[in-house]
Amino acid sequence: MTVQDYGVNSPARNRRIPKVAELVAAELRQKILRGEVAEGESLSPEAVLVEEYGVSRPSLREALRLLEQQGLIAIRRGSHKGPVAARPDSDLVVNAFTMILQLRKANLADIYRFRMIFEPVAARMAAESASDSDLESLKSLLAAEKDAVSDGENFGELAWRFHSELVRMSGNITMALLVETLEKISGRHASAALMRWDDKEEQRGRAYRAHRRMVGFIERHEGDKAEQFWAKHMAEVGKLILENPDELSIIEFLD
Fold it and tell me: Could you give all domains of the chain from N- to C-terminal order, each with its CATH number?
């Protein structure tokens, strides 16, 4: 297939004509997303791609740069150099997403209230379908939380990872990806807020006990109870971490 097959010579009226590199990048992107080129697998050599798409080497290299920026390929150096298919990391979207939220005047209260909508549902789904390995993963996090209650080191991060793991266990890929992205914004705020509480050890202990109780609901596959309890828990935590309006800005958590 060459660039002529994309119809670049007959653009729709008022539509920007894509650059040759963008068209090639779009085709390669679809191949990677469809799984025709597996993660870690090399793309065809440059000479083959140039001939296949009927483009110049500079256009092909620009297409590869676009894919590299999107995290869909990595350029391998050395004797086995060349592009290989990769899986984009959520870090690529976190800062952009954070800036959009900031520009639209959203704040951490918006994010937390959004999580209050879907996390209880995820908790129910997790309780209904949790596997033995899921439970072991959650119990491992719980054990780490217990060790961090008294000294507070890393407790905020561990507690938020518990939330994220709970959503992952729901089996819903969209919710899991959303919470992974939001965790890097709201999780940092929760950790910072936790360290400012006067009774922080007491609050850490309360959070740990709530998480321990949730593990019990999941272990017994009590979906309705898990959903109701998690909604109540998140509402109680929300009152604490969102109590100071001056600390709700997103911009301070940009990298």
Answer: 3-85 (1.10.10.10), 91-253 (1.20.120.530)
